[in-house]
Structure formats: structure tokens, C-alpha cells
């Protein structure tokens, strides 16, 4: 393999801008790294070239570990976005530069230079100065220069970024042709999805420093695994439906489960996500029909045409469906307070002529095929009241959301709409900063538990993050976790805003423990955290053979290991509270995970037991309370 990256990591100011990226690019492959601005593309490329130092991980080029080698000894050619030609050297001298510094004899240099200028379509222009060339021509020179010393690997960092559309299209073709002709392994970085699709043999999507998915363009477009990739690559209709034994239910329609819809890992066998499934269909998978009888595919219902646009060879429709029972829309985004579901559709001009539609018309909407996502995205609800604990909760909740790609809603309870409310939400948004996949915020006049109940009944969330003063937070924590079906993260005011890396997961042997482990795993795997799973047994149990406990711990550990989380297990004997505190001290853990007790007859969850006794003893330590499946039903 030509390029192998292993867990490549770069931090700036403690924050990972490239986060444990592993990637393999084959011989002669044109591989595209796609990500929005600031996602870490240039940093990653510069680490491969040796222009930026690596904090962790390895770079292998053609089987050779080059992590410690200087750029000139790595055998790579690099083309930057800015032309970066030497302005006082002629085109010919620019191209020859890499050969001259390597001491190549003059005649060989000239021959190679002429070949390259021919190759990039600039034959005869060697005598010009860079300023006498157009932007597109200058990038052709930069390409010729990068190829002069016959690098085994070519790295291109948004090489067409500054050029206009027509020139970009020409250059794309040139790159593709040259790359094929020379067979040089190429890593091409862009933020432009169309460019990525057109060029890539395979592509990878990078977001906030993490490589989310890699594969052939068509595969990622049709069968993405993550919500981010589904919505990032092209237009997506993404709805949350329900998994049933027959398939995926979306409102009135049940789609049979295809091979790609099977959950592949333990991570969706989680309490709140167990029945929820994200269903993707592309605009071209949507069909519109005059009458319900005509359709040969499942119908979602009758919609109104909200917008219609001519986009060259296609017609684009935005359709508004009335709310469907049990269905929530992720994309297109539904505005707060609206019950409608928006559907994006495209059809050929031929279809549009045969069945013309105008804005305001009513039409039946069907779906030809759907794809269920393997990894349902997480949704966090962060609570803020402007206090010190709630600032700590926003800081940690925001960091977790960034790393886990969770969608975030910020809720300020006990605040009537007005200037004060706006100020508080603005403050929260500023504190969260950029980098959260999606962020909504709202106020509620209700007190915290009622506000959470109202919010989560409308839009369920996986995790509520609550800032809490350790000594008097218990009642509030009980009320908040009882207010919905979510897990709860309690954040004390002293908690650092960075993501915890050494989790202690406390489980009691038996069923509920599995949920603790699997939700903790879903979160931890995004954070590169390591976990210790702890079971505390009474002193008397020292005499038993402990085989059942060992088996249980081993199976819990396997669940986490399958998610790529380094894990160890521990059994301690004694009092639960004392032993958990002992392990926290001994193990230097920075997050504690416990399962929640089952709710009582009134549906309330009481945390007086282990949680209540631990809470006052955890200065600075966030506490994740995971509800067991029984607590959700
Ligand atoms: P991209 O090329 O995808 O736009 P970059 O790799 O240039 O992204 O940068 C990713 C993030 O890393 C930036 O948003 C910035 O915050 C940070 N970063 C990059 N280079 C530096 C640097 N030299 N010093 C501090 N932060 C940096
Ligand atoms: Mg860049």
C-alpha cells in the first residue's frame, strides 16, 4: 500500500485538529479527502509531507515509516492552494527547481522539464515568468514542478481553490489524465463535493479532525453509515422512523430491511435508540404521482408543492407533507414550531413535462427505496441557567458533542422570552463556539424538569447535560432523568471542559449493566477514551469462584472492544461506595458512569442509593447516569 496512516493525531492548544486518523491508499489510487473548511485537511496533508510535526501515530509511504523523516526524503510532491511559484524564476526554472537542488545534470533536467510542460499542456511557455500566466496556468506549472522529481506520492491541497468554475473543470480533467498516465498515488484534498465525486477512486469524509467514512463515491452517497456523511454528501431526506421486526416503519409505510439496514454492531442495541432508526432517501428516490392508485411504490402521503426550481437537466421540488405519526425529520431541517415534514425531490425534465406541477399544487409522494443508517446520530440537550455549574456543563457538553458529532439543543428553563432570555442563549451559543454539527436553542418559562419533559416529548434526545452543585443537585437530577427517556450527565462546576479520557464504568452483574456499557461505548468511541469496567462484590463473595462475574465482565469488555475502545475490567470486594471511590483514586479516572435504578410505580427514578451517596464525594468529576432498558419502557 502506498500511503498508510495509523492513528495520526495533531493537537493545537490541547485540542485535536486531526484526531486519530487511520487510512490506507492503494498503489496508483486517486484518493480524495473531503471536508469543510477547518476540518483538518491541510494539517493532515502537511503531516504526510513532513511539513507539520506529528503528535501521535505513524505515516508509512510505500512500506517505509517516514514519520521522522524530513520532507525532502519522503518522495512526495506537493501542490498548494496558493500558486507558490518562485516569482523571480521563469516557468522552466520553476519546474527544474526540484531537480536542480537534487543535482540532476543539466541535459536530463531540460528533457524532463520539456516532458512535463508538454504533459500539463504548457509546451513552449517555459520562458515566461509566473506573473505572465493566468491562475490556471500557474497551477499547471505548480503541478509540473511537484512531479519533476518523480515522487511516489502526489499531495494536492485544494489546488483549484482560487480558480473559476470553467478553469477548474479543465484542470480536473488534466489531473485525472496525468494521474492515470503516470500511475502516481495521489491524495487530493477539497471541500467541494462535486469535485470529490468527479475525481475520486475512493474518498473519505473528514469532520472536526476525524475521518468518518471512506469508500467509493457511489457507495458513500447511497449507503452512508453516519448521519453526517448522509447529509454532507448531496441533498438528503433523512427521517427518524422505527425499527420493527418486519422492517423500517416511516409513518404509514413499512420498508423491508435490506442487507444494509441490519444493525452491524452492538451500538444501536441501546435503550433510547433501540427502536429509532434513521432512514435516508435521496431526492431522485422520491416519486410524485397524480393519484394514489398509480403508484407502484410505498406512499408517504399527500404533499403540497412549496417550491419548484429549474436546474438544467432536472427539476427540483420542495414538498410539504403533513406531520406523520412517530416520524421526526432531521433533514431538510424543520423549523421550530412547524409540524410539517419537508421532502426534497428531483425529476427529469421529461417527467416534469408529462406531469407538470406548480407551486401550491397537491401531489402524492412516494419513495422508491430507502437506506437505514448503521450509526444513528446522538442528540444532546444542554441546560443552561447562567450559573457556574451550567457554564461547566455547556463547556463539557459542547466538547463531547463536537467529538461525537451530536446534534445539540440548548434549553434555558425558567426564562420568559425577552431580552434576558436572548442574552442567555447568545452567551450559551458563544460559549459553545463553532464546531457543533447542529445547534438549536430556546427558552422555556417552565422550571427545569417541566421544560425538559416538554422539550423531550417533542424531540427525544439521548443525553441531557446538567450542571449541578454536588451537595444539592440530587433532587434536580432525579426530576430531570425522570422527565423523559434520556441518559443524564451531571457536570460539577469544577469539571474541566476537555473530554474525559479515562472512564470508570460501574456495572452490577446482570442485564441492566449491558445498557450502561453500550451507551457509554457509543459515546466513548468518539472520544478515543479508554474504559475500566468495575464490579464491586460483597466481601463474602471472595469465597465464590466468581466465574459468572468474570463471564459478565468479559462480555461487557467485548462490547466495548468491538467499538474500538481500549478496556480493562476490575472486580473489587467491599462496600460499593467505598470501592468505587477507591478505584477512582487508584485509576486516575476522569468520568464515572453508573446505571440508573429502575423507576418506581409513579415513574420517578430515585437516585438516593449509590448515586446519592457518591455525588457529594465527586469534586470536579462528571457523572454519567445511564438508564437501563427497563427504566425506559
Ligand atoms: P482545513 O484545511 O480542512 O481547512 P486545517 O488543517 O487548515 O483545516 O485546520 C484545521 C484547524 O486546525 C483550524 O481550524 C485551526 O483551528 C487549527 N490549526 C491549523 N493550523 C494551526 C496552527 N498552525 N496553529 C494553531 N491552530 C491551527
Ligand atoms: Mg486547508
Describe this structure in words.
By secondary structure, this protein is an alpha/beta fold. Helices cover 31% and strands 29% of the residues. The protein has 18 helices and 31 strands. The strands form five sheets. A ten-stranded mixed sheet has the order 24-23-22-25-26-31-30-27-28-29, sandwiched between helices. Helix 12 packs parallel to helix 13 (474-482) and helix 14 runs parallel beside helix 15 (547-562). The longest helix is centred in the first third of the chain and has 18 residues, at 165-182. It binds adenosine-5'-diphosphate and magnesium ion (MG). Magnesium ion (MG) binds at residues 41-42, 157-158.
In what order do the strands lie side by side in the largest sheet? 24-23-22-25-26-31-30-27-28-29
Radius of gyration: 28 Å
3D shape: globular
Oligomer: single chain
Tell me the β content: 25-35%
Structural class designation: alpha/beta
Q: What is the residue-mean pLDDT, rounded to a whole number?
A: 87
Bound ligands, each once: adenosine-5'-diphosphate, magnesium ion
Please specify the SSE layout and strand pairing.
Elements: E1 3-12, E2 15-25, E3 30-34, H1 41-49, E4 56-61, E5 64-65, E6 76-79, H2 91-101, H3 106-119, H4 135-147, E7 153-157, H5 165-182, E8 185-190, H6 193-199, E9 202-207, E10 210-215, H7 217-222, H8 227-232, E11 237-244, E12 247-250, E13 253-256, E14 276-281, E15 286-289, E16 299-311, E17 314-321, E18 328-331, E19 341-348, H9 349-354, E20 362-367, E21 371-372, E22 379-383, H10 388-404, E23 407-412, H11 419-432, E24 438-443, H12 448-458, E25 463-467, H13 474-482, E26 487-491, E27 502-506, H14 511-527, E28 530-537, H15 547-562, E29 567-573, H16 576-587, E30 591-595, H17 610-614, E31 623-626, H18 629-632
Parallel strand pairs: 3-8, 3-9, 6-7, 7-8, 22-23, 22-25, 23-24, 25-26, 27-28, 27-30, 28-29, 30-31
Antiparallel strand pairs: 1-2, 1-4, 4-5, 9-10, 11-12, 11-14, 11-18, 12-13, 14-21, 15-20, 16-17, 16-20, 17-19, 26-31
Helix pairs in contact: 2-3, 2-4, 3-4, 12-13, 14-15
The protein binds adenosine-5'-diphosphate and magnesium ion.
Residues 41-42, 157-158 line the site of magnesium ion.
